[in-house]
Amino acid sequence: MLKPIAVYFEQCDSGWGVTEALIQNHLLMVVTEGIMQYTIDGRTFVLRGGDAVYVPKGSLRSASHQLDQKHEMYVAHFHYEPDSVALPLLVEGTACHANISNEAYYKQRFSLLTQQWLGKNTYYDITCHYLLLELLTLLNIEITHKADPSSNNVVLQIQEYITRHYREKIGLPDLARFVNRTPSYISSVFRAVTGQTITEYTQQIRLAAARDLLTKSHMTIGEISNHLGFCEQSYFNKVFKKATGLPPSAFIKEYRYGLASPQGM
């Protein structure tokens, strides 16, 4: 699991800088405005608005203003348990950066991550995990796109298809026909780019929808299970508990208690 240590938005005036030192946690950052200079293990990058950077734990880094210009950025320091997330970016453990294509969406998701971390409402740790994973995955996709644009496009098409059809039964042959590739090709490419299998990604989308329906609708657990395309409610209960640590019924009770308590306000 990805566990944030600190998440914040920072406005940096002239004179700002980070002295060279070993970084104690993994770090993800996106510059939202201005220009800055970042040095990681002897490699120096000039970063502008829309540039995101991943820095693995133990890297030697420093940072400073570029041309005495002010800059703004979102920053997340986090802990990563090896083998818990098979995202290539994390597994390889090499510092990397890229300009994010959909900059506005990336900043919005980072802003939401910051709000969740600071608010620490019910299940904020689970929400932060998924938001941070999404941000890292989007960065990984941008990096992969530079090396192989066709693979990135295939993955984006598959993700779009799943987002539209996650309530239905989605088979590899269906996805393969949709992108005009073989099932084995899309399986290997999807995992290489996102660090997840297609099944894991589909379950992630379904479970995100399940959390919303459990807390914001009047549907029963059985109705939600059927609505989201799970074959049986018992299987839905099992999958949901594995992802959140609680069965759906307990999740609903905890959520309602959280809203009623000061912490959940």
TrEMBL record:
Gene3D superfamilies in alphabetical order: Homeodomain-like (1.10.10.60), Jelly Rolls (2.60.120.10)
MF terms in GO: DNA-binding transcription factor activity; sequence-specific DNA binding
Q: Which UniProt keywords apply?
A: DNA-binding, Transcription, Transcription regulation
Pfam families linked to this entry: AraC_binding, HTH_18
Q: Which InterPro entries match?
A: AraC-bd, Homeodomain-like_sf, HTH-like, HTH_AraC, HTH_AraC-typ_CS, RmlC-like_jellyroll
Q: Does the keyword Nucleotidyltransferase apply?
A: no
Annotated HTH araC/xylS-type domain residues: 156-254
Asked whether the UniProt record includes Glycosyltransferase among its keywords, one would answer no
What protein name is recorded for this chain?
A: Helix-turn-helix domain-containing protein
- Record organism: Cohnella herbarum
